[in-house]
Amino acid sequence: MRTKRIGLQKNACVALGNLRNEAAVPALIAMLSSPEPLVRGHAVWALGEIATCEALSALQRASEFERDSYVIEEIQEALKAAVYPGQER
Fold first, then answer.
1. How close are the terminal C-alpha atoms of the chain, in Å?
2. Which end of the chain has the least Cβ crowding within 10 Å, N or C?
3. How confident is residue 23, by pLDDT bands cut at 50, 70 and 90?
4. Cβ–Cβ contacts within 10 Å for residue 46, how many?
5. d(CA 63, CA 43)
6. Which residues are CB-contacts of 61 (< 8 A; sequence separation ≥ 6)?
7. What's the pLDDT score for residue 82?
8. pTM of the model
9. Which long-range contacts (CB under 8 A, 24 or more apart) does 79-82 make?
10. Nearest Cα to 13, choosing from 60, 86, 36?
11. How far apart are CA 62 and CA 33, in angstroms?
């Protein structure tokens, strides 16, 4: 069975997060406006894995307007796990 668009987007977020490629941050930030909570949640996870200043700032901003409980939980976990300068991952 073929993966549908939402599944493909989710899988792309997971792959980008696993790669921790900073070049993916703008695309992942764009995914935070997806109408699908599953996609937004995986984009949040990926941004948390990459954890650049830009990624973490986007997560902070997203926490101000996100209404889905699953995505809110992902944002909180990503920000809690984030490594800030002077910390180790």
1. 38
2. N
3. very high
4. 27
5. 13
6. none
7. 83
8. 0.90
9. 79/48, 81/48, 82/48, 82/51, 82/56
10. 36
11. 9
